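Entry for the shared binder. Reason: the reviewer on the internal report wants the predicted structure included alongside the sequence.
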Amino acid sequence: MFVTVLVNLTVTPNTVTTVDVVNAVPADMADTQPFNSNVLVLPVDASLLGLTNSASAISYRVFSFENTDSGFVEDSGLLRYDLAKPGLAFSSAAAIAGPAYRDLDGTKVAVGFTKANFDANRSKGVLIFHHHNGAGSRVETALVNPKLYLPMIRR
């Protein structure tokens, strides 16, 4: 079993807390293929980061590297997200656990949209992991354009 751990580097000695299973789905519920894959979900309880319903915004930054001489690939810059005010919210009877859904033909996932939250979080869309797909097709992005609308035309 693979687990996510959170290490608090602000205290001495550092505290280590086991959080959840990797990919947020226990192996007895579904195989999310932690081996031979380049996608992984590392879940962390918001409360372990000191977040509450009234203090739910985080700032974060993502760096990517590759195994070459240059190493560094990209820096996202400082990003912000408010966990209590998502722009997109997902729900489905097909949910396995947490944010995981069975990746099968015909599976439907309802999406709630709140434009003000989407804009405030500066969201761009959804990152989708297909854990069992082959190399090069495990990650999909679904961009959302909140300014796109279809006007009603009457004759």
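Summary line for the report: The CA atoms of residues 11 and 17 lie 13 Å apart.
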